Structure prediction request, 228 residues.
Amino acid sequence: MKILPGIDSLYYFCESNENYPQFFEKIETQLNDVTQFYTDNRVIFTPKDIFMEFQGFNLQYLGKAEGFYWFRDTNHFFKIGFKDPAINERTHNIRIQLLANGIYAYGLKNTLELLHRQLLHDFITGYFPITRIDLNAFVTYDFGFVDKSMFVTRKRHYATIAEIGTSTATQTLYVGKSPFRLRIYNKRLEMEQNKAKFNLMNEYFSSQGVKRKQSLYNVEFEMHRAHL
Prediction:
């Protein structure tokens, strides 16, 4: 049995420094210029049709949500959001989510170094409060026999324990709820249902000596900022 522990998801803020307002102004200016160009030329476009260059990085614009202008790098290593520093000053100005390509193809540490030392080094202080982290272990073992009756809860009802599966095997089991919960699920099944994820994760598991015919489950603790 192989156990591959690590970090499966990572969301966090970056504290910005005194250089950030000028940087954000450039972002808004570029976005406005591109949008105006498309509008003047009567071009039908969506946010994802806009690509911009920052610090040598080519980023695709994803749109605005929760007050942040969201971008994704063309390699799909990360998503990054930038906020107007004059609005909602109690929230950090930069939000980041690491994507599967960054974690499993390029490497977690490499992706963080790429972000902090190349893209953001002029605009951040070095303080990175985590908003969500999924600590996990991929295990070459069949956990299909596990069901919610094997867990107990301090609550009188089982709303915090749920399972998805068939009459013979559990595919996904949830224990607890946000901001802290355990999730156990059939990783092989998830990969079969998502071709893009299959190609990425199959290459990763092959490099770790996991054979394609082996059972593979993910045992994961999802922890949000309130719990941390």
The mean pLDDT is 93. The helical segments are 20-40, 100-119, 187-192, 195-207. The two ends are 31 Å apart (CA to CA). Residues 20-40 form the longest helix (21 residues).
